[in-house]
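Q: My collaborator sent me two sequences in one message, no labels, and asked for predicted structures for both. Can we handle them in order? The first one she listed is below.
A: Yes, handling them in the order given. First sequence, followed by its structure tokens:
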Amino acid sequence: MIGLVLAAGAGRRLRPYTDSLPKALVPVGPAGIEDSITVLDLTLGNFAEIGLSEVAVIVGYRKEAVYERRAALEAKYGLKITLIDNDKAEEWNNAYSLWCGRDALSDGVILANGDTVHPVSVEKTLLAARGEGKRIILALDTVKDLADEEMKVVVDPEKGMTRITKLMDPAEATGEYIGVTLIEGDAAPELADALRTVWESDPQQFYEHGYQELVNRGFRIDTAPIGDVKWVEIDNHDDLARGREIACQY
């Protein structure tokens, strides 16, 4: 199993940081220290802590910044890092971005969004949930109060995940998908095909629509509640301030 990071996004709501950096390289250390730890650092650190030795990072917007740091990141975290180019990163959404990493999926991956600050306990929870024929497992926050923007999930105790979308009444949701997934290698062909169906029908769709496509086809997707842990998806400057509060605790 390897790590896989989606780090191709522009993150325009985080300007001026993202004028020259992809969102995954925006500093989440103390404000004013521009060369401090990033979301990508935190994610690579988590992967190293659970014993992974290889990571693939899907890059696009300002990808040269990741290429420039690759050797230093490999040395810092003891990981072999492969960079995968997304040629449509500034035009299309992340269903296509994850599809660009379809070959890496065959190794089995822990997928992490490049804008999610979270503790290593999330990856450990996913690993502990493996087995019993589970092929895709989503990390799920069942504690947080939900609103309109969250990627909401409905779980049936017998069938697993039945619905994933932002466009849902929060009261109907079991919890929020936090942007971290364990994908077993034997699920790769079916997931890649679902992703292709999604982005070919609408290039602006999220990869989570690929998960929904799989479920609609009869594929079971499981979930693993992460408990009451501090995490944040960084989309704007308020999120960044929250990310800095959380990152210093790990």
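Q: And the one she listed second?
A: Here it is, processed independently of the first:
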Amino acid sequence: METRKKVYLKNIIIGNELPFVLIGGLNVLESEGLAIDVAGHFASVCKELKIPYIFKGSYDKANRSSGSSYRGPGLEKGLEILKKIKEIYDIPVLTDVHTEEQAKAASKICDVIQLPAFLARQTDLIKSMSNTDCVINIKKPQFISPSQVTNIVDKFLSYKKDQILICERGTNFGYDNLVVDMLGVGKMKEECNNTPIIFDVTHSLQFRNSSDDVSNGRRAQVLELARAGISIGIAGLFLEAHPHPGKALCDGPSALPLNLLRPFLQQIKELDDLIKKLPKLEIE
């Protein structure tokens, strides 16, 4: 029988069979004012639509393709911004960490800390993250198979950390292109004891021309890809938005225009409600 695993985050319960949770915000923190405004818009829309919400913002994008790309305000200033957002709107906050020291510092402010895809095999980082009280969001590396995610999950479990989310963000398909393997998402649920699955629709939209320094994106397809992901029956969606995607300092081509957030989420919620009500068919 399938184990109905759940993750508990303050007053939010996260599970693949439960109403979906939204992790949303900015790819990278650009300024305090922008971050507070974006968080407020997300919080307001999610409260109206009754969608559990976690704000996401990165203080440092350390894994930029180009050395000239904007990385963020840094650890100290970034955590100050996240702390303000948490206090103003009374919402959980998430950020990604890259070193053992960052995991310790971020855990003092954040409710969820994220293991970046490119660092997901770093055992010492996993150990440090496990020693915090935070929920862990594992970004599935785009270079491994769904079955290999169990190795990452097992590392956390070996350090007595079981409050874990797995975040799908696409798989490399040849060079400079990502494809979302919907069957693979089901495989991860099966092999990882029904650990809650979050679908990162934003980063799954990335692609790049081989000659370009930075990633491009397929923003026009964000709704259809989000619909496809949520229809599998998962715990949540990971979404980045920006008031002016064309002016965003990072990954603007994949960001949802902020003014479309409400109609976007309304469709996703209606679909999620329908999917979660349908009876499960046991097909062998």
